[in-house]
């Protein structure tokens, strides 16, 4: 279904605040307090027109490795669900999703966004169950579809109520290139089956 740029951005803004919280159970702990230096704000940017997944020269991320968490996980390209307007996080909690309408692994500007489930009532702990444990200085390695690797270093961990997460910052296509990892966190509301917060990790390319 076609949509205008403004309408598509509105869908993402609504979706990222809800999709990551769907069908989950409470975490063992609440996220740690925010720490590190948050990324510089950049101009808002919505999804690209739905004509192709990525430019020909773009390198999609296919793997994510975080030594601190003993995590080595597959990354699938995802977009926005046409039916719900939600960020289409992979249904398996063992797989995370790269936002294919944004910057790819070889980008020189903007936010490379990867999101995943914290857990699921049916599947248990997700790939990002311990994402809240990351802090400044922790290394992250992302592998691309062409076999290349790109290393990042965590610079900030932030926790936002879902309604207040600054999506224009984390989904921007301009500004210094960075890696953004997103999952759910905070208290779990059993009545709505949603977590209250989003946990956001920002990492810069390693020197």
Give your account of this protein's structure.
It is built from two helices and eleven strands, in the order H-E-E-E-E-E-E-E-E-E-H-E-E. Strand 6 and strand 7 form a beta hairpin. The N and C termini lie far apart (42 Å).
Secondary structure: elements and pairs:
Blueprint: H1 5-16, E1 35-36, E2 61-66, E3 71-78, E4 95-99, E5 111-115, E6 119-120, E7 124-125, E8 139-144, E9 149-161, H2 167-170, E10 178-189, E11 194-205
Parallel strand pairs: 3-4, 5-10
Antiparallel strand pairs: 1-9, 2-3, 2-8, 4-5, 6-7, 8-9, 9-11, 10-11
Name a few traits of the molecule:
207 residues; eight-stranded mixed barrel; 2 helices; disordered N terminus; Sortase_F; hydrolase; Sortase; signal
Say how many strands there are: 11
Query: Helix coverage percent of residues?
Result: under 10%
Question: Span from first to last CA?
Answer: 42 Å
Q: Can you tell me the residue ranges where pLDDT is under 50 for at least 5 consecutive residues? A: 1-31, 40-55
Radius of gyration: 16 Å
Main sheet properties: 8 strands, mixed, barrel
Shape: globular
Secondary structure category: mainly beta
Oligomer: single chain
**What would the average pLDDT be, to the nearest integer?**
79
- Count helical runs: 2
Strand content: 35-45%
The neighbouring-strand order within the major sheet is 2-3-4-5-10-11-9-8
């Amino acid at each position: 279904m076609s949509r205008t740029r403004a309408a598509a951005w509105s869908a993402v803004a609504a979706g990222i605040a809800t999709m990551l919280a769907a069908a989950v159970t409470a975490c063992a702990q609440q996220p740690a307090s925010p720490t590190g230096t948050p990324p510089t704000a950049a101009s808002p940017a919505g999804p690209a027109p739905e004509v192709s997944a990525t430019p020909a020269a773009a390198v999609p991320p296919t793997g994510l490795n975080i030594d601190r968490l003993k995590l080595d996980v597959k990354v699938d390209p995802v977009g926005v669900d046409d039916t719900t307007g939600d960020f289409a996080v992979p249904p398996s909690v063992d797989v995370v999703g790269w936002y294919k309408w944004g910057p790819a692994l070889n980008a020189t500007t903007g936010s490379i966004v990867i999101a995943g489930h914290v857990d699921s009532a049916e599947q248990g702990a997700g790939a990002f169950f311990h994402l809240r444990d990351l802090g400044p200085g922790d290394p992250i390695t992302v592998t691309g579809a062409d076999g290349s690797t790109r290393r990042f270093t965590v610079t900030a961990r932030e926790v936002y109520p879902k309604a207040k997460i600054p999506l224009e910052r984390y989904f921007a296509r301009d500004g210094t290139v960075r890696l953004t990892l997103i999952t759910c966190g905070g208290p779990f509301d059993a009545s709505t089956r949603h977590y209250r917060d989003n946990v956001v990790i920002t990492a810069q390319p390693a020197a």
